[in-house]
Protein: B(O/a)3-type cytochrome-c oxidase subunit 1
Amino acid sequence: MATFVDRYPDEAKVVQASLAVAFIALGIGAFFGLIQALHRTNIIRIISSVDYYTVLTGHGVLLALVFTIFFLVGLFTWAVTRSLERPLPDIRLTWAWFGLMTTGATITAVTILAGLFPDIPMSADVLYTFYAPLQAHPAFYIGLAMFIIGTWMAGADWFLAYREWRSENPDERIPLQTFMVLTTMIMWYISTLGVAVSVVFFLIPWSMGLVDSVNPLLTRTLFWYFGHPVVYFWLMPAYLMWYTVLPKLSGGRLFSDPLARVVFVLFLLLSTPVGIHHQYLDPGIAEGFKFIAMTNTMFLLLPSLLTAFTVVASMEHGARQRGGEGYLGWLGTLPWRDPAFTGMALAGLMFAAGGFSGMINAGMNINYLIHNTIWVPGHFHMTVGTAVALTMMAGTYWLLPQITGKKVYSRPIGLLQVVMWFVGMVFMSNAMHRGGLLGIPRRTAEPQYTNFDFVTAIGSIWEIRVQIALGGTLLFISVVLFLFNVAATWADDRSETPVDDYLPEPLSDASGSPVILDNLALWTGIAVVLVILAYTLPLASIIGDAGIFGSSPVFPASISLDAVVNTITGVIN
Ligand code: HAS
Ligand code: CU1
Structure:
């Protein structure tokens, strides 16, 4: 069978372009990460602490939004085309969404970077969570809106391809990779509505001076309505590779196609009605709504626990095909010299730890201990920063040959690079989690308070800082090696031998799974109902308390000293 690039040359170009933008963002974002890690730990300071927030915003937006999502659209374009075995309906539409996303991302990036140049009257140091009361230049939000509309068009492109395929194959099961793409996109449509409303109706008019004020709690809640599902939008491309590529790399087959479908349906249903778990500490949202979000979050652990089971079972099956034996002895027969395999396996391993720190975040009472501390960046560098980013880098060693017809320039550099990422992240995220338990705050250039020392039970603050700086440096070197390897592969000539792109059928295939799993309309309907149940009352009460534009007389709150004194004396007497 011919290589992907020969069968679908037009689609291969779009995938290549998407990955190229993703990797440019990765390079700049990683450099900002290095500056921050060294600055925060007070080891090397090359920027002022005021500029730290611009650099932090650039780091978050370029890595968590631009790198991940451009990689996603490239991967999904590849997955839909190859699994439906047909080109996309109209390549002009495909280039149109790519163009819109790239223009939007560029405008947003320029607005952020302008903050480093005092002569340019533009800035956007609002962090990647961009809710009020922090305010950015309107161009920041406009770029983001264009970027998101671009992703909607990409989804439409894949749905149109599916519709064409369906009209010719009325009775067939949706191919697994396309099923994963479509369920992920429905989840994305539902959840991006929140951020679209926030950006279009509140943040853009407010930043342009068309309205005087906004209700910060409302923009926060709309942000987190989108802000939790977005983490699964990052994760699903990694899962797509763990389910469909990793078993093959291990030498075996996916354990169960039906279980994989159940997992993606569960993510569609449960990803959105949980966003309030980022707001346990927000006054203004009643405890009961927080409790509902917590319960839903605990149910949402299920699809990832099922994934751990299915993916590890597939790896074990592969290892046993290669002659592996014993309870754990089979681990040794896995292809550890293959950077694509090792990167994904290490990413999965770290996700097991990141998932546990997520469970701790999700508990309402324990969250009070870690919220707004550096524990949270520890958590998300294991999840998006490793489960997702490392899988994407490792996946590139598999994907790039498919879309270019070229061999990876150096597998040893690839292997070194993925292992270095894992080791760097062990240092950094472990130290961040420990620092968070001591109360070291996140999102600040100056975590050390004057005349106050954090007390450690084991180790020291100095040692925690050195681990963070060392980890951050290893991560940066790993990205440099990755980008070098990718650029060298791209620049190489095509190899004579065709690229192996065969993905084997699962052990238990789609014929064994209930047909209802493919009923996308049903799952969309239930997902919408769950969102309505989880969000109508909290939103109504937030708007009731402070108005749509935050014009309630209750804010800003002021406390009279007399009232406090009277209350205290009342209690004492
Ligand atoms: Fe989270 C905060 C709860 C998953 C990302 N999370 C964040 C933030 C980010 C983020 C970016 O409830 C910070 C936002 C900000 O800036 O304020 N998170 C969870 C829970 C999960 C979870 C319950 N998070 C993720 C994923 C992310 C991500 C995935 C990105 C991709 N998170 C929270 C909460 C907060 C939060 C609170 C708010 C904290 C606060 O107070 O601010 C769960 O989905 C996790 C489930 C995962 C598992 C692990 C399963 C293990 C698997 C590995 C299999 C192994 C393999 C390899 C394949 C149960 C699947 C085997 C290898 C061999 C060698 C055998
Ligand atoms: Cu979340």
Notes: The chain has a mean pLDDT of 94. The chain has three domains: 1-172, 196-320+519-572, 335-510. Residues 228, 231, 277-278 surround copper (I) ion (ligand 2) (CB under 6 Å).
